[in-house]
Amino acid sequence: MSEFKQKTTNIDEILKQLGWFGRYQQKRWILFIIIIWVLLLTEFSYVFSTINPKYRCLVPDCETASNTEYKPVWLSNAVPFKGKQPSRCKRFQIKADKEHRSTGECDSDLFNYNVIEDCDEFVYDTKHTTIIQDFNLLCEKVWMIAIPGSLHAIALFLALPTTGYIADRIGRKKVIIFGVVLGGLFCFIKSFSISISMFVICEFLQAASAGGSFTSVYTLIAEFTPAENRLLGCVISFGCLSLAQMSIAGIAWMSNSWRLFLRLVTIPTALVLFFMPFFLPESIRWLISQNKISEATAILENIAQENGTELKEEHKLQLKVMLDNSKDSNKIRNESLKDVFKSIPMVIRLVTCSICWISCTFIYHGLFIMAGEISGYRYLNFILVGLAEMPGSIICYVSCNRYGRRLTMSVGLITVGICCGFYIFIPDGHWLRLIMFLLSKSAITAALGTLYIIVAEMYPTSFRVTLINGCSMFGRIGQLITPTMPILATYWNILPILIFSLVSTTAGFLSLILPETLNTTLPDTIEEAVNINKKTVINPLLYG
Question: What whole-number distance in Å separates Cα of residue 259 and Cα of residue 262?
Answer without folding.
Answer: 5
